[in-house]
């Protein structure tokens, strides 16, 4: 038999992390919320509870860790499409997540929202002010008994909530995710720890580690700076900051923070940063003197010294290859270079560095035949810049693109002589443009100028050995001049690249048959 306890009962100690305030409902609404519940049988008529309207309004403080779901049976209704409930926001969202964790621990991942019609309270879990036997006033279905308190306490709920409110626990969970390679999950946990305790330098440092692992180096530097700001003597944060600066090619800053990290960094770290500083300086000097081989060597050494994510160093490397006529390699370097948002580059490296990177990218695109992309890039590079070099590149890129469009129009209408002249105008601005050279070779071929066509194709294949169109055009010109051996060699290479091409296979057989006749 349940005994009634007064409302000023001593508060039970527990998690004391989250509380809900419930008011009194009328009797009719409480009855509707639990249609299948049997009324409590009083021990005697004298102890029968008076109607709820006669009771003074009573408030019950409930700790959220004491709530588990008690699903009531709904009335029969037409079958509806099943909906998936997801956790909400704010206080109810925290409760939802807590219930979800409990259900998951019990082997049931289905989430049911807590409401005034499906909540049962278990004792000895938190701070409850109310009746020990039964509370039938406001909620209508909150029941507690000492036997149930001891038998049915779910400690998982307290642990789940305490982990989400303990920043050290969140950091430990983040470390576990980081070590398992789940960087996004680790980042989210570090962020939660920072929200709870933003003055802990190690949380910011760990967040920087996660960002660096995801390739977001500039963001990682920002978090490391925050850690050093909180604790200027934090050696590990200084060391991580130095390593990030080294990877981004900021050698001078890397040296400074390696020295600040004291015993964490050794002499090899400082030596590597000093060497990087020397290679970048030499690379810039070689560029001024147009010593492209030296520039290529120093840029490669800078990347090997640790600047594996420095956009400017990669641009210097690509420019050296471009000036040496190694267009395909230059394209490959920029294709595999680290990618950063334009705004991030401007904010971190400055607008001058961003303009230089865009200029080199535009020149590589121009050499690869992406004329429209090249024009768009140089226009972006020239924006808000007062740089003579970039302005000159803008004029050159636009002139080459215009000449190519003009030549294509003439070629379309079989005006091969005019098209040849137009392509020549573009080559005046960019003598080693493989696309314009190949297009001019096509015009020479149409005009019967086989030797000139072969000459242009030879230049193209030096610049771009894998340019199949130029090799095919040269093979055809060799055949027209009855140079069957040279023609057969080109067709042989093409059959390896395009084994299913029947026209190439027939041309190869034709060249070989003429060789046999001559022999």
TrEMBL record:
TPR repeats lie at residues 167-200, 235-268. The keyword Plastid does not apply. The keyword Transmembrane helix does not apply. Pfam families: TPR_1, TPR_11, TPR_17, TPR_4. GO terms for cellular component: cytoplasm. InterPro entries: TPR-4, TPR-like_helical_dom_sf, TPR_rpt, TTL1-4. One of its GO terms (molecular function) is identical protein binding. This is Inactive TPR repeat-containing thioredoxin TTL3-like.
């Amino acid at each position: 038999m349940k005994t009634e306890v007064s409302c000023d009962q001593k508060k039970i100690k527990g998690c004391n992390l989250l509380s809900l305030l419930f008011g009194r409902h009328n009797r009719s609404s409480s009855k509707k919320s639990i249609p299948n519940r049997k009324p409590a049988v009083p021990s005697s008529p004298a102890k029968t509870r008076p109607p709820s309207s006669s009771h003074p309004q009573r408030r019950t403080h409930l700790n959220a860790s004491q709530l588990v779901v008690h699903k009531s049976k709904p009335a029969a209704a037409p079958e509806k499409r099943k909906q998936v409930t997801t956790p909400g926001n704010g206080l109810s969202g925290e409760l939802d997540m807590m219930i979800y964790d409990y259900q998951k621990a019990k082997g049931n991942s289905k989430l049911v929202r807590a409401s005034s019609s499906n909540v049962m309270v278990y004792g000895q879990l938190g701070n409850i002010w109310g009746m020990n036997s039964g509370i039938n006033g406001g909620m209508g279905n909150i029941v507690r008994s000492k036997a149930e308190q001891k038998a049915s306490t779910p400690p998982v709920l307290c642990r789940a909530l305490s982990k989400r409110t303990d920043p050290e626990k969140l950091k430990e969970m983040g470390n576990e995710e980081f070590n398992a390679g789940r960087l996004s999950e680790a980042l989210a946990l570090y962020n939660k720890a920072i929200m709870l305790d933003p003055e802990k330098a190690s949380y910011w440092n760990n967040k920087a580690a996660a960002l660096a692992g995801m390739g977001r180096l500039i963001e990682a530097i920002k978090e490391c700076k925050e850690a050093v700001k909180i604790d200027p003597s934090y050696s590990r944060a200084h060391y991580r900051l130095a390593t990030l600066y080294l990877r981004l090619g900021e050698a001078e800053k890397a040296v400074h923070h390696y020295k600040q990290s004291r015993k964490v960094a050794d002499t090899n770290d400082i030596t590597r940063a000093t060497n990087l500083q020397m290679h970048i300086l030499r690379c810039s000097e070689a560029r001024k003197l147009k010593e492209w081989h030296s520039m290529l060597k120093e840029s490669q050494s800078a990347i090997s010294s640790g600047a594996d994510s420095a956009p400017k160093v990669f641009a210097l490397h690509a420019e050296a290859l471009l000036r040496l006529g190694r267009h395909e390699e230059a394209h490959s370097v920029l294709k595999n270079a680290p990618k950063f948002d334009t705004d991030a580059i401007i904010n971190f490296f400055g607008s001058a560095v961003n303009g230089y990177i865009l200029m080199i990218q535009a020149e590589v695109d121009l050499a690869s035949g992406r004329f429209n992309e090249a024009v768009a890039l140089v226009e972006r590079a020239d924006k808000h810049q007062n740089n003579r070099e970039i302005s000159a590149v803008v004029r050159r890129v636009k002139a080459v693109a215009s000449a190519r469009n003009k030549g294509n129009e003439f070629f379309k209408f079989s005006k091969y002589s005019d098209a040849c002249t137009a392509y020549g105008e573009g080559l005046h601005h960019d003598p080693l443009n493989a696309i314009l050279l190949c297009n001019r070779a096509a015009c020479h071929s149409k005009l019967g100028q086989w030797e000139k066509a072969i000459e242009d194709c030879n230049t193209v294949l030096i610049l771009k050995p894998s340019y199949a169109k130029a090799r095919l055009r040269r093979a055809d010109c060799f055949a027209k001049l009855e140079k069957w051996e040279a023609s057969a060699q080109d067709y042989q290479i093409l059959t390896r690249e395009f084994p299913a091409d029947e026209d190439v296979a027939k041309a190869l057989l034709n060249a070989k048959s003429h060789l046999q006749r001559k022999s």
